[in-house]
Design a protein that fits this description.
- With about 850 residues, this protein is of the alpha/beta class.
- The strands form four sheets. Strands 1, 2, 3, 14, 15, 16, 17 and 18 form an eight-stranded mixed beta sheet that branches. It has a four-stranded parallel beta sheet with strand order 5-4-9-10, covered by helices on one side.
């Protein structure tokens, strides 16, 4: 044990959270470098301010800082999709409360090395798809390129002079046992993590405010400002370029980061289905027109970008994209083909290539690598494999690293036979040492865990710029060495400390001026996004209405249970109405409902309250809302994201319910969050087409639910006392009970109720109010070419409103038990008109329309 540890063994124990206790319990793993402590056990100098903060607690214990970090992650809605986790889409981003600190002198060396590697990989790809000097000089074996799935000959001729190939580059660094950083992985086609690094910084700068200010941690903002300018400069002749970020979509592991980057850089977030290839160009399919796209920042791997020229099974890309790139009608960055650069075989060739291409020695070394296509390297891997890591040469296969030394004998021999059969497909690599880093445990103590740091660089016409920080990832528990987020790894903010006074800033990291004004274009609204916004409105209204009726029903059932009596006609009608509202047939309207469901409703109610897989259930409605909102994160305000996060938490207790009558409190909390979401949509969203589609969804769903409820409760009138109770329930559902009671006594009857809920234009819950708002929104939506003065979707709503206005309320009343046929016919017609209006609206604006007019430059 080190000297400090021995000295502290005799010291009195202190409560968790003190500096002395932190260092007393912190024991680095023998044989590995540690980021906090020197080999002799003394803290590294650049960690001392943070250690002083640990001692002072900054007003809170370390455990409290950990809780605050997790709270901010939840509040900001930071998520990560773990593919092996069934609930992974909404999984909170794992973030450790302690930052990783990097010394400014060491960071300067990393900057130089990273800048060199970015320039080197740029040169390599241009040569591979161009003159082929590396092949002629025997520095890259042709067998390696031929065996690599990422070598795509169809891309020859697609790289243009003057345009960067590797605009964004990332390297995974690990500190080896000798204390030196080595590169263990290169990311060059769509490197992820910079957005999460930015989000980590926002959170930890709030949990460690005093220490963050004292240390003068270098700012990440200028890197993203430079990235924004670099993207615009890719098309210098275009005054107002349309730049999009192409994402695989909300099921991708890094969807949150795509949203964050699109917001930070002012880009339109799109998916492959939003883009169209026509006339040799790429267009964004928006409402009523196709808008020309100038630059695509892609987060889709090479093979999936174009099903026409690359992988035909892809549904993530754009058919024709390669052709548009080849004719320089759109700029894609990083360039197509850069996936080849991510091969773990390149480290075997890089030192020689650096001297050949740049006339420089490699500044940032990789782990030792042996490409098995070379006979001597093959024999080394075969004889020393027990000490090595074996990998396939490309990442497209998705294979995990293999450790022959940890395999059973037969399995290891099978691997060796496979390598000998296809030697060009494999590499052996030295098992890199992973340093340990201080991490906060659940008890508020500090423990060492193995970790790596991913660092980022961008290069455009102005040169290479390095992000002064990065994404540090550590294992989930001490002793583990798996740091990938997919394997349960935890992220850390990476603090690069400023150079000493008078020190010279490293080359390639110039000062960055204030960002230029953003692109002055109307916010593009892809058709897919408009459809998602409409359904977000529908799902929110559906969940709110369903829960509103559930709360009324549960109170009624609770009163009956308290009085110790059986159900009555009002309760039975409310149960049947629940089935109609939720469309959860047969429910309480099936052939056996009188004998089973109505007498013993608990099982069906519990199903609708707890089963997320049951159509029409409360959890299903909330899940549909959450999933749709997740696809719209780039369109939602920060407060809306917080409310959605709170809504998810508020609804979690539903799954554990055993008694449906115990759901009242949970449903009350969920309702508060739904109302907050509705309020934010009404008061905080810009009144543009996206908001209009969302509000159209709300109006459609509110109208349909009201019609369904009235048909289930009012069309067949009850006896006088039951009718009064049932009417009160319907009015309470429509937030109109107090208004109804304030009317003159002569209007407090069935006719007065119907007038208030169907015809009162000043009642936000009335059916005619929904139709008025729908028609107002449709009038303001873009008009398409050759569109009739009254489009079909508007005609359905106009006819419904006219029929409603011309109806005679006096003809709707009848005695108890008598079917109000005219009223039922009117409501059925309204229901049909709302359904037909939605279908026509979808066909008019939201369905794929390849004949839309083009908007944008038609020059090359």
């Amino acid at each position: 044990m080190n000297g400090m540890k021995q000295a502290q063994d005799t010291a009195p124990r202190r409560q968790p959270g003190s500096r002395r206790d932190v260092l007393h319990d912190y024991a680095p793993v023998a044989g590995n470098a540690d980021e906090l402590l020197l080999p002799d056990g003394r803290p590294r100098a650049h960690w001392l301010p943070l250690l002083r903060a640990l001692e002072a607690h900054e007003g809170a214990t370390l455990r409290g800082i950990g809780r605050e970090t997790r709270r901010l992650v939840d509040e900001l809605g930071v998520t990560y999709h773990v593919y092996s986790d069934p609930a992974g889409v909404q999984r909170p981003w794992p973030l450790d409360a302690l930052p990783q600190l990097l010394d400014p002198g060491e960071w300067a060396s990393i900057e130089h090395g990273l800048s060199q590697r970015a320039r080197l990989f740029e040169w390599i790809l241009r040569d591979v798809f161009g003159p082929g000097e590396l092949l002629r000089a025997n520095l890259v074996p042709p067998e390696f390129l031929a065996a690599h799935a990422g070598f795509l000959p169809v891309l020859k001729g697609s790289l243009h002079a003057g345009l960067p190939v590797v605009s964004l580059y990332a390297a995974d660094l690990a500190r080896d046992r000798d204390g030196r950083f080595r590169v263990i992985g290169d990311r060059a086609q769509a490197p992820s993590g910079s957005g999460y690094a930015l989000q980590n910084r926002e959170i930890l700068s709030r949990t460690w405010p005093a220490t963050f200010a004292e240390l003068g941690v270098r700012d990440l903002g200028p890197f993203f400002d430079g990235l924004h300018r670099g993207l615009r400069d890719l098309v210098p002749d275009v005054a107002e370029p349309r730049i999009v970020l192409l994402s695989p979509g909300p099921l991708n592991e890094a969807w949150f980061e795509h949203v964050l980057l699109a917001r930070r850089l002012g880009l339109v977030l799109v998916q492959g289905q939003d883009l169209v290839f026509r006339d040799g160009r790429i267009w964004l399919s928006t409402l009523g027109q196709l808008e020309r796209v100038d630059v695509i920042l892609r987060r889709v791997d090479d093979a999936w970008c174009d099903p026409l020229s690359l992988d035909p099974d892809s549904r993530l890309g754009v058919a024709g994209l390669v052709e548009a790139v080849r004719h320089r009608n759109v700029v894609v960055t990083n360039a197509l083909g850069t996936g080849l650069l991510e091969s773990p075989a390149w480290p075997a060739f890089l030192p020689a290539i650096a001297r050949f291409a740049l006339g420089e020695d490699l500044l940032l070394p990789s782990v030792a690598t042996w490409w098995c296509g070379d006979p001597d390297s093959l024999e080394h891997v075969m004889t020393q494999g027990h000490d090595l890591v074996v990998r396939s040469i490309d990442r497209i296969e998705g294979g995990r690293p293999l450790f022959p030394g940890e395999m059973p004998g037969p399995e290891r021999e099978a691997l060796y036979r496979q390598i000998r059969a296809q030697p060009t497909r494999f590499v052996g690599q030295e098992r890199a040492g992973l340093s340990t880093m201080p991490c906060l445990d659940e008890q508020g103590g500090v423990e060492p865990r193995h970790g790596t740091v991913r660092v980022f660089a961008s290069q455009f016409a102005g040169g290479v710029q390095v992000l002064p920080g990065g994404l540090t990832r550590v294992a989930r528990r001490p002793g583990d060495r798996l740091v990938s987020n997919q394997e349960g790894g935890v992220s850390k903010d990476t603090w690069v400390l400023p150079p000493a006074a008078g020190a010279v800033a490293p080359d390639g990291q110039p000062g960055v001026a204030a960002p230029e004004p953003g692109v002055r274009l109307p916010a593009s609204l892809p058709r897919r996004v408009a459809d998602d916004l409409l359904w977000a409105g529908r799902y929110a209204e559906r969940a709110e209405g369903l829960i509103r009726w559930f709360r009324l029903l549960l109170r009624r059932l609770q009163a009956i249970r308290t009085e110790g009596r059986a159900g009555d006609g009002v309760t039975d009608r409310m149960l049947r109405a629940l089935t109609h509202l939720s469309c959860s047939y047969p429910g309480f309207v099936g052939p056996d409902s009188a004998e089973q469901g109505l007498l013993h409703p608990e099982a069906e109610l519990l199903r609708l309250l707890t089963d997320s897989g049951a159509p029409g259930s409360v959890p299903a409605a909330l899940a549909a809302l959450q999933n749709t909102a997740n696809a719209l994160l780039d369109r939602l305000s920060a407060d809306s994201v917080r409310v959605l996060s709170g809504l998810r938490d508020a609804a979690q207790p539903l799954a554990a319910l055993r008694d449906p009558l115990a759901a009242g409190g949970v449903l009350d909390d969920v309702t508060v969050h739904l109302l907050a979401l509705s309020g934010l949509a009404q008061e905080s969203m810009l009144r543009e087409d996206g908001w209009r589609f969302m509000d159209c969804g709300r109006r459609l769903e509110r109208g349909l639910m009201l019609v369904n409820l009235l048909r289930a409760t009012v069309v067949v009138p009850s006896a006088q006392r039951e009718a009064a109770l049932l009417n009160n329930m319907v009015l309470a559902f429509a937030e109109s009970l107090s208004v109804y009671r304030a009317q003159p006594a002569s209007r407090r009857d069935d006719a007065g109720l119907l007038d208030l809920l169907l015809l009162e234009t000043g009642n936000p819950r009335a059916l005619i109010y929904q139709l008025d708002r729908l028609l107002e929104h449709l009038e303001r939506l873009p008009r398409l070419e050759r569109q009739p003065r009254l489009p079909e979707h508007a005609r359905h709503f106009e006819e419904a409103r006219a029929r409603l206005r011309l109806a005679a309320i006096e003809d709707w009343t009848a005695g108890p038990g008598t079917m109000r046929n005219e009223l039922d016919g009117l409501l059925a017609a309204q229901q049909q008109a709302l359904d037909a209006g939605y279908r026509a609206l979808f066909a008019h604006y939201l369905a794929p329309a390849p004949t839309l007019p083009l908007v944008g430059r038609m020059d090359g």
